[in-house]
Amino acid sequence: MMMILLVCSIILITTLFLQNRSTGKKSNAPKSPPRFPLIGNLHQLGRHPHRSLCSLSHRYRPLMLLHFGRVPVLVVSSADAARDVLKTHDRVFASRPWTKITEKLLYNGRDVTSVPYGEYWRQMKSVCVVHLLSNKMVRSFRDVREEEISLMIENIRKSSSLPLNLSKLLSSLTNDVICRVALGKKYGCETDFKELTERFSRLLGTFSVGTYVPWLAWIDWIRGLDSQLKKTGNDFDEFLEKVLDDHVDGDRDGTDFVDVLLTIQRDKSVGFQLDRLSIKAIISDVFVGATDTSYTLMEWVMTELLRHRECLNKLQEEVRTICKGRSSVLEEDIQDMKYLKAVIKETLRLHPPLPLMAPHESTHDVRLREYDIPAGTQVLIKFRPERHLNSSVDFRGQDFELIPFGAGRRICPAISFAVVLNEVVLPVESTEDQTNVAESTGLAIHRMFPLYAIASSTT
């Protein structure tokens, strides 16, 4: 016992000595809240890190430097500072940090979202943007979206005056659309598949202590994170292998994402070899990311509309006016629905599905405003719809007041895909107080409790 205490004391004293030496050097770093030795500011994150960081940033904005264990983390909390990071110095901050989570679940970071900046990322992004997520490709799946929305509306009508679990309904809709578009058929009715995707998404949003404090990596093992990552990664890989084998062996002429990627691999039409691991990594990105974030946004839209009945009434009136008696909304109607677009913008402002976005990482030292930011620094970028009606601010990465999909080189390539799927209107009427806005944890920030409502006719 005495030997263990002696070793721990030596480690602590050495760390404090090195820390004091490093802070004694001339440095012009952004302001930081006080931190503990070894763990830095990790103790200040709390259950909802985005809320904790928001509270801290009020005192240290617009740039705040934290330390997650050994890793410096720059928190950016103003539009101007975000513009400096994601536009002025976009190339410097275009990389992604390594994490144990992405290594185990996303094929060692071979996907588009988490791969470090470089030639491989450029190749994978070009495949996604040109072949999977182009406007032409998004339009080609219109029938899929309309069919699934019609099925959802039919289920709503059958519910009569019974309370509807809107969270479950919207989750199933998103899952079915993404499955058909990406994989060629629906898997939503399979209980094991639902459980697997929920587990996968939850783990992607889990904090790994060992990533930031390597000597505490045993904590991840003790709490079961390592075993969960291994099992979930293997289970999801087994599922994707079956999907790929079905596409290769089947006699079909499909145009889903897997078909497109296998055609590129076979024809070698993109100037580089697209291997099987890369295909599975891309599908993981598109499927898990699009499903979780799209459903989350729709869920929060409905939550805010039910909390603000005057806004719901305005939106229903806009729908009735533009649809002119039709019982369904067509995709070409959406361009005229200015209030709907304002509702979506306001919801993205209040409840961005990924409130901290995926972390960026600096590839070399850079001068940011009056501060010196060293290489290897991670960067985190932090209901009244009428505010957006006469505003030119958009969420496609050019206006840094509203960047839920990111900006710069690492902007989400699936913006058009996600927006089209989210521009859906449900005329619903709240029952009792089911609009609690407590948040869950995970990859995307869902409601903690399911959203229930009763559907009512608008005629």
UniProtKB/TrEMBL annotation:
Question: So which residues are the signal peptide here?
Answer: 1-24
| Cofactor section | heme
Please indicate if the UniProt record lists Iron as a keyword.
yes
Q: Where does heme bind?
A: 412
Q: Does the keyword Zinc apply?
A: no
What molecular functions are annotated in GO for this chain?
Answer: heme binding; iron ion binding; monooxygenase activity; oxidoreductase activity, acting on paired donors, with incorporation or reduction of molecular oxygen
Q: One Pfam family for this entry, by name?
A: p450
InterPro entries membership: Cyt_P450, Cyt_P450_CS, Cyt_P450_E_grp-I, Cyt_P450_sf
Top-level taxonomic group: Eukaryota
What PROSITE patterns does the database record attribute to this sequence?
Answer: CYTOCHROME_P450
Please provide the record's keywords in A-Z order. Answer: Heme, Iron, Metal-binding, Monooxygenase, Oxidoreductase, Signal
Family the UniProt entry places it in: Belongs to the cytochrome P450 family.
Q: Which PANTHER family match?
A: CYTOCHROME P450 71A2-LIKE (PTHR47955:SF15), CYTOCHROME P450 FAMILY 71 PROTEIN (PTHR47955)
Name of the molecule in the record: Uncharacterized protein
Protein species of origin: Brassica carinata (Ethiopian mustard)
